[in-house]
Amino acid sequence: MITWPPTVQRRLVDESTRTNNSPMLAFIKRRQFGLALVVCFVLVFLASYFSLARNQGSDYSANSQRNSKNSALYNHASTSSPPHSVSLDSDNDGIPDAAELQSFTDRENFRKWFTLIAEEQFYNLSNQWKPEQRDCAGLVRFAWREALRRHDRAWFQKMGTGYTAIAPDVSRYTLEHGPLGEKLFRTNFGSYKDGDLTSGNFSEFADARSLKSFNVKFISRDRHYAESGDLLIFYQPWVQKFPYHVMIFLGRANVGEDQANDWVVYHTGASPTDEGTVKKVELSVLDHHPNKRWRPVESNSNFLGYFRLKILD
Predict the structure, then answer these.
(1) pLDDT 10s digits, 117-141
(2) Do 46 and 102 fall into the same domain?
(3) Does residue 103 sit in the same domain as residue 224?
(4) How far apart are CA 26 and CA 42, in angstroms?
(5) Model pTM?
(6) Domain residues for 17?
(7) By the 8 A CB rule, do 125 and 151 touch?
(8) Which residues lie across from 221 on neighbouring strands?
(9) Which residue in 51, 124, 216, 236 has its CB near the most CB atoms, within 10 A?
C-alpha cells in the first residue's frame, strides 16, 4: 500500500472537493434527473394506454356478443311473428288492416273474380249459391266469399260450367286462412278491436243495410267515379219491406263480346210468390227505367250512389 505524504493528501482532497462542486457536474446531474423523470412518465403513459386498450377490447367483445345474441333473438321474433296484426285498424273503418287488400294487384285480381262470379249467376246459377241466400245482398256475399277462395281445379268443378281463370288468386290471404275466416261482414259501428269476431260484430251474413252501413265506403253519386266491383245502393223506405237494394257495377262485361263499359248485375230479390232472378243490364238502360225510383241518376233521391268495399279502399 502506497502512503502519500500529508501535503500530497491535502492537495488531493482539495482537488476532489473542487471537482464535485463544479458547475458542469451539477448540470450533468440535473440533466440525468430530468431524463429519468421523462422516462418514468413515458413508461407510466404506455402502461396506462395498453391497459385501457385491453379493457376496451374486452368491453367491445362483450358488447358484440350481447348484440349478436339480441340480433338473433330479434330476427327469431320477427320470423315467428305474423306480418299483420289482426287487431290493427289504422283507418278506423271497422275492418282490420289484415283483412284489407293493400296492394294494387290484389285489389285488381279481387275485382275480376268478384265481378266474374256475380256475372256468371246471370247465365247459370251455381249450386254453391244456396237458394235461401238468393237476393240482392246474397249475390254480393256469394261473389265476395268465392272471390277470396283458392281457385283450383276442385273449385271450378264445384262452381259449374262457364268459369275461367280470369286472374291470379288474391295473394294476401285466402278465405280459408284469412284473418276473419268466414265472418267477412261487419255488423256494427266502431273501429275494429280485439274480441269483435267473438262478440257478434262480424258475421257470415249481412243484408243490404249492413253492407251499406258497415262494409262499404261512399264514393260518389256520379258514375264517372265508379270502378269495377263497386256497389250501387238504392233506398226506398216507404215502398218495400226491405228498403235497401244493391247492384254490382261490372263496368266492362267479363262474359260476351259487348264493348259497353257500364254493365251492372243484380238479383231482383225474392218474395212469397216469386224467387226473383239475376239481371244484367247497362246503366244507360236503367237510366230510362219506367219506374223513376230505380234510375241510377243524381236527380233520383232514392239512389244513394256508388260505394266501394272497404277491403278495396
Answers:
(1) 999 999 999 999 999 999 999 999 9
(2) no
(3) yes
(4) 25
(5) 0.72
(6) 6-79
(7) no
(8) none
(9) 216
Last residue of a domain, one of 79, 110, 128: 79
Cβ atoms within 10 Å, residue 139:
24
- CA nearest 87: which of 95, 96, 79? 96
Q: Which residues have CB under 8 Å from 191's CB, separation 6+?
A: 89, 92, 93, 94
| Position 155 in a domain | yes
Q: Which three cell numbers stand for residue 286?
A: 236503367
CA atoms within 13 A of residue 250's CA, in its CB half-sphere: 28
End-to-end CA distance of the chain: 121
Grid cell digits, residue 130? 244456396
Residue 87 lies in a domain: no
Question: Domain check: are 63 and 159 in the same one?
Answer: no
Closest CA to 239 of 294, 287, 277: 294
Alpha-carbon gap, residue 288 to 298, rounded angstroms = 13
Do 33 and 101 lie in one domain? The reply is no
Q: Are residues 111 and 11 in the same domain?
A: no
**DSSP E strand stretches across 176-262:** 185-186, 202-203, 216-220, 231-235, 244-251
Q: Are residues 38 and 166 in the same domain?
A: no
Alpha-carbon gap, residue 297 to 305, rounded angstroms: 8
**CA 55/CA 50 separation, integer angstroms:** 9
Q: Which amino acid is at 292?
A: K
Q: Name the domain count of the chain.
A: 2
**pLDDT tens digits, residue range 161-216?**
889 999 999 999 999 999 999 999 999 999 999 999 999 999 999 999 999 999 99
Strand 216-220 versus strand 231-235 pairing type: unpaired
Cβ proximity of 98 and 179 under 8 Å:
yes
Distance CA 203, CA 13 (A): 122
**56 and 104 assigned to the same domain:** no
Check whether residue 156 and residue 208 sit in a common domain.
Answer: yes
Q: Which residues have C-beta within 8 Å of that of residue 229, sequence separation ≥ 6?
A: 110, 111, 114, 115, 248, 249, 308, 309, 312
